[in-house]
Every structure is written in C-alpha cells, then in structure tokens.
Please model this.
Amino acid sequence: MAAPTGRSANNHVYLAGPSVFLENSTDAARAQIAACADLSFIGVHPLREVIEQIDGTLPPGAKSPDNYTDQDWYQGDLSKIRESAGIIAEISAFRGPSMDPGTAFELGYAVSRGLKVALWSDTSKTTYYDRVEADAKLAQEKGIPSDVLGPGKWAEVDTLNATENLMITRPDTPVYATFGDAAVAMAKLLGVNPPA
Model:
C-alpha cells in the first residue's frame, strides 16, 4: 500500500524545535525531513516553504517566505500542526536552562489536539533542576542578581529529575537523545513500517 501523499494525510508529523535558528537551518531541516521519509512518514518542517522556494517548488500563487510577517509564521506553523498526526519536538536547553518557548507552545497546541508525541533533547542526560541550579550559580559567581534557588518569588524549581518542566516531560513520554531515536519512536506510534 502506497503511503499517503499531499499536504493533508495521517502520516504527517510536525517537526518542532529551535533548529530554525541555526545558521544552517535549511540543511538541518532537510536532514530531519529525509530521516522521516526513510521511516515512511512525512516530516512537516516549519521551514517547508523556505525549502520549497529554494528548490523552486513553492506552489503557484503562494506567498514568498521572504515576505512573511510574524503572523504569517504563527498561522503557518499552527496550520502545519493541524495537518499532522504527530509531533517530534526538540526540548534541548535553548538560550538558558529551559527549552525554546515557541516549541513549548507548539507542543502544547499539538497535545491539545491529541497528536502523538515524541520528544528529544541533546540535554536529555541532565535534569531541568540541575541546569537551573548551574545557571543560578554562574549568575551568582558573576555578581548578577538572581532570585532562582534562593529567597525570592521564583525559589521553587521542579525537583522530579526530569529533563524539562513536568508539563513537558510527562511520565508516559520518554525523552530520546537524538532526533533519529525520536523519529523511530514516532514511526512506531504511527504504526508505519519503514522500508526494508
């Protein structure tokens, strides 16, 4: 049986994460999309239209990503999530001890829609608490005022030995160390059979 094609099929998986901010973001996106294709599902990347524009395959009449507003990106990403059956989200520490807030929003939206979830993080071997504690100690060493892990309004931090905040890393959702591992897990969740 041939895999569904087009932009609205039950084997589409939204690829969330801060890789859109990498200098080589389109290369990273292409690698993730290819890894998904190798596992018989379609990776739907936030940079899809950018890649289509580069490749000359942007649908006729489509707005150029060069002219996108913040609202265009926002609506486009939500639309991609709505067309998907699952989400693979990178929850690596991003510009601090926590994951990218945009990815957290996308993950929450996907969960609210009942999508299948696979998480990965290059910081999966550390806990959220340990990263917050390390940041607070570094701030203290540099003389930067911080109310984290001390008297103040933000003194309490999750101590559940999880990779990220408990609303992100639920007990029933493992955190994989690589995108590839998360993609294999997603293929199993979707019930697709990778080519032999």
Summary: Residues 1-8 have pLDDT under 50 and may be disordered. Residues 49 and 55 are 10 Å apart (CA to CA). The two ends are 14 Å apart (CA to CA).
